[in-house]
Amino acid sequence: MATRGWLIGLLTTALLAGVAGCGGTGGDAGRDGPVTIYVSAPLSGERAAEGRAIIAGAKAALAEAGGLAGEVKVSAVYLDDTGGGERWDPVATAENAREAVQDSSAIGFIGDLDSGATRISLPITNQADMVQISPGASAVDLTRRVSAELEPSRYRPSDDQTFARLVPAADVQQRAERELAGQVSAPIRPARSITECRSGQGTSYVISPAFLPPAGGNGFSGVAFPTWTAYGQAAMTLLLNSIEAAGTRRDAVVDEVLASGERDSVLGSFSFTEEGDTTLNRFAVLRLDGCKLTFEREVSAPER
């Protein structure tokens, strides 16, 4: 583990040096357009289904907008952060981020799904003043200080905040789990249990943020299956709306994404904290009987 950490740190440092020498960190991403949005997600291996769902959502949002953000023409590039392996790969992840920042038309970066991958890509996009929106990276240290070794400054070589996430942070989910623990007698299992169930297991509960609220409703009633498609759709829509409002300068789009105020989305109404955390704090409580998954209730994480 120590060797892997050293390798990742060395790789990121080298890539940042390469980005710094590529001719600037901000400014125009195509002047009046067209602009490009990059999406990085796992497209093979153990999380491929989730990665493909995120990309499907992003594609749907872009198609619904007619490939436009206001009058600005927008295209997208979809990249695999696994390098064809079973899980995210540090080299592939860094290459994806570097490809984005070296594209003069690039305006924003959606990714990564995993927190470890986001720790690799974020310093690269941050150095280039490019907004990065993660649909699934929940590690607390991406936005808030955990310890001297785990704090957001490690991922902000520009000293500016350029990151936002749509999924609730891990500590928010932990508070929701503690809230649920007082309401049920069966054990609470990790959210990954949704895709790793085994026959013969007893009843347990899983908390998952990856649920669509019903159309026109305020809760999760009637939702039968989790989806990451909504997170890809919400991320792309957020970027398109921000480009329409702010124009095609990367730094202006960063400011617009992180601006205060409620936004409506397929995930529900939310805003971002100044650290870049979503204010969404509702989770679906799923009853898992062997491999049968059913929605049971909704739980909200108490305030800190």
Widest beta sheet: strand line-up: 2-3-1-4-5-6
User: In percent terms, what proportion of residues is strand?
Assistant: 15-25%
**CATH secondary-structure class of the largest domain:** Alpha Beta
**SS field, number of helical segments:** 7
The whole-angstrom Rg is: 19 Å
Report on the biggest sheet.
Answer: 6 strands, mixed
Second-tier CATH architecture of the largest domain:
3-Layer(aba) Sandwich
Might you state the CATH topology name of the largest domain? Rossmann fold
- For the record, the count of structural domains works out to 2
Shape: globular
What is the overall pLDDT average? 85
Order of H and E elements: HEHEEHEHEEHEEHHEE
Pick out the low-confidence regions: 1-8, 19-26, 215-225
Helix content: 25-40%
Structural class: alpha/beta
